[in-house]
Amino acid sequence: MTVAAPSDRRSHLGPAVATVLGALLAAGLGPLFLVGLGGSVGRSSCPGGSSASAPLGPGAGERVGATEYGGPGDPSSGSVGASGVDLDTHPDSFAELGGTTFQTATAMGGLPYDTPLRISWGARSVIAYKRDIGLGGGPVDGLPRDIDLWWELAGALRIPYEDGRWSGAVRVARPPASGAGPLLGDAAEISLDGSTGGAVPSGVCGAPAVGSTPAPVTSGPRAQLLSDGLAAAPAGAPAAVRGIIAAGNQIVGTPYQYGGGHGIPLDQIASTYDCSSSVAHLLYGGGLVPVDFDADSSTLMSWGEPGPGRWVTLYASPEHVFMYVAGLRWDTHNAAGPDDGTTGIGWHPLVREDDGFVARHPAGL
After folding, report:
1. How far from chain centre, in Å, is Cα 309?
2. At what angle are helices 30-37 and 15-26 packed, to 10 degrees?
3. DSSP code for 299
4. Are residues 226 and 120 in the same domain?
5. Whether 116 and 233 share a structural domain
6. Cα dihedral 30→34→37→40 (10° resolution)
7. Which pTM does this prediction carry?
8. What tens digit of pLDDT does each residue of 316-361 get?
9. Can you tell me the distance from the alpha carbon of 56 to that of 72, in angstroms, rounded to the nearest whole number?
10. Are residues 115 and 155 in the same domain?
11. Number of domains in the chain
């Protein structure tokens, strides 16, 4: 659980503080304790200690004040959130601020636990999940302080680590309701002014749809790896290829977990992926597999047509699968050496060894 510390910038003090705060509030001493911590508690108060902020509705997006917490330079934070989860194993976590319980921490409208949000800083965006709460503090850059970013999540946004003391403005958005087209040409581009598109999985608020963010475009004949880890699609590529690249861009940097991403419809965004589930996510983004397609790497050894394709080639074995899309490799790890880009799930610029793999491609691609 996050609260404002004396610096008004370091904010995470862990579940034990929640117990202390609860006792203080029950005894009528809470306000004195909060004054000692410094700062206000987000936006103007509502009955029950909730925030007066309007709910962040589907399709909405706004700039909010944000802080970072946790990590080796912020030992007071610990790594267990108010929800009880170990945030070290859930690095894509954020805390909604404004109160001492999940019912009163409503700086962004009182999002349900595990609600996904698209969070943007500069030119980079990530999907993160509400797994923590906190009181917050004074304004940040003139904006109400609404959200606390776990330090590994902040790092995924390329926010510089400042020992848990960084603060600044980020944009948060929740995509609209399901029904948006799954392919690139059927949806609007997400921009940092809050406009966005996508589908919300059943029972979960705010998850983006596959292909909802059109891929950037490059004039060259091959896909291009951009500085933020995303990929630009060739302008002359078929719509299916552009949809594959757009879907890959959605989950770049998502944590790897063996078995992650399996067992859910492909129009949902998982919090973790493995090699085959991430490839299935991309294939669905290109309109090449049904929403309930769920195959492991050995099954993908016989998927599609044999041999390399013109635009898309899968390389599958009983243990692993990776693919090339318009000349850029999609893989779950840095398999071609230290110059091969990110170590996680995403686009990689170098060609890797394919001995022991079977080459397959989608029909027509």
Report:
1. 31
2. 130
3. H
4. no
5. no
6. 160
7. 0.48
8. 999 999 999 999 999 998 888 877 876 679 999 999 999 999 999 9
9. 32
10. yes
11. 2
